[in-house]
Design goal:
Blueprint lengths: L1 E2 L7 E7 L4 E7 L7 E2 L8 E6 L9 E2 L10 E7 L2 E8 L15 E14 L7 E7 L6 E3 L11 E3 L4 E4 L8 E6 L11 E10 L2 E9 L3 E5 H15 L3 E11 L4 E3 L5 E6 L1 H4 L12 E2 L11 E7 L3 E8 L5 E10 L2 E7 L12 E9 L2 E9 L2
Parallel strand pairs: 13-20
Antiparallel strand pairs: 1-4, 1-6, 2-3, 2-5, 7-8, 7-9, 9-10, 9-11, 12-14, 14-17, 15-16, 15-18, 18-19, 18-20, 21-22, 22-25, 23-24, 23-26, 26-27
Length: 370
């Protein structure tokens, strides 16, 4: 490439080979006209002569380099109709898209074949170009998602017992967990579930958040418990709760979930600060059931009485005493950890729990699994 820009009027350029035959000759009649000249010559030795008007002084730029031949075939890659890779050599048989997403994208490939023709003008020159073929067969794919990272429940601890009274009704109960990190860098949403078993089925409450904690007003919990008590006649409920981390495609549950929390609203619903009193004696089904390692057994005492609750195995042998003493009227609960009266862990299997309170007797079965 020769730059004659800045030369005077009627500047001439000659390129000669070793036989003194001019191969290229350009005349810059006006400054800027034909300022740049490109030519393609075979390899060899050449002589370049610049003839300036009325002076042998001047500044010229001459760039001599080897012209790389254009390839006969090139490949182009399209993603959802948009060009993402152009002019790939025919020796490249694969292409990696480093900007993939979780949603499906479709890819096609075209071939660019070299074509050549000549212009029709006083100075005939050769023009090279590639003509693009039709698209290849379409292939669709998406990135394989990696689920959110592991995380754990923090508070309240498993087996927490919460008694709601007029004194703490304005407080908050915090449910918190550690943070889950998504390997793909996507935002995490957390789904929290509280559930308790009733005589008519499972009662569930869901909540969603992007944070790692929720603070539930005890007043709201009392409202929920009031509604449950109207349906079941019970003022103590054992809720299990857990959290899932969700990246939009996959969910991961907390590694140590679910946990349990016992909520007692009897004192809050009582009159003049006294606990509500059930109308009759009752023994309720333990929860959870089957259980491991702890279950809660609820029972109602309608009047002052000596209450005894024992655990029996399938052979009818007494293996544990979980309640033995005088009870005032009210709604009560006891937690049993699956150990016998000597503190030794019992084996998995079916057991029976029997209650006697005055003339009231009742028996139900429970299942211990390990």
């Amino acid at each position: 490439m020769i730059d004659l820009d800045g030369s005077l009027y009627d500047t001439a350029l000659g390129v000669y080979d070793s036989t003194d035959t001019a191969l290229v000759l350009a005349n810059d009649d006006y400054n800027g006209l034909q300022s740049y000249l490109e030519c393609i010559l075979p390899t060899g030795t050449y002589y370049i002569v610049v003839d300036g008007y009325s002076s042998n002084n001047g500044s010229y730029t001459i760039d001599v380099h080897t012209v790389e031949p254009l390839p006969d075939l090139l490949y182009n890659v399209y993603k959802d109709g948009n060009l993402i890779a152009e002019g790939l050599a025919d020796t490249i048989l694969t292409y990696t898209d480093n900007n993939v997403g979780l949603y499906e994208a479709c890819y096609t490939v075209t071939a660019s074949i070299l074509e050549r023709w000549s212009d029709t003008g006083p100075d005939t020159s050769h023009v090279y170009a590639h003509i693009e073929s039709d698209h290849s067969n379409e292939v669709c794919a998406s990135m394989q998602n990696t689920p959110p990272g592991a995380f754990a429940l923090i508070t309240p601890p498993d087996g927490e017992e919460l008694v709601i009274t007029n004194d703490n009704i304005g407080d908050l109960q915090v449910f918190a967990w550690s943070q889950s990190v998504d390997p793909n860098g996507y935002d995490i949403n957390y789904h929290i579930l509280w559930e308790t078993e009733t005589d008519t089925g499972m009662f569930q409450i869901w909540d969603d958040t992007t944070g790692t904690a929720v603070a539930i007003p005890l007043g709201l919990m009392a409202e929920v418990m009031t509604g449950l008590s109207e349906l079941t006649g019970e003022y103590i409920a054992d809720f299990s709760w857990t959290v899932w981390a969700d990246d939009g495609l996959d969910e991961v549950q907390a590694s140590n979930g679910p946990r349990t929390i016992s909520i007692d609203v009897g004192w809050y619903l009582g009159i003049n600060g006294e606990a509500a009193i059930p109308d009759i004696f009752a023994l309720h089904q333990n929860y959870p059931n089957p259980f491991n390692p702890v279950t809660t057994i609820r029972y109602d005492v309608a009047e002052q009485a000596h209450v005894q609750m024992d655990i029996y195995n399938l052979l009818g042998q007494k293996v544990a005493v979980v309640v033995n003493g005088v009870h005032e009227p009210g709604f009560h609960a006891v937690r049993w950890n699956g150990t016998n009266m000597y503190g030794n862990a019992l084996s998995s299997g079916m057991y029976f729990y029997h209650i006697q309170a005055g003339d009231f007797r009742s028996i139900k079965k429970l299942i211990l699994v390990k």
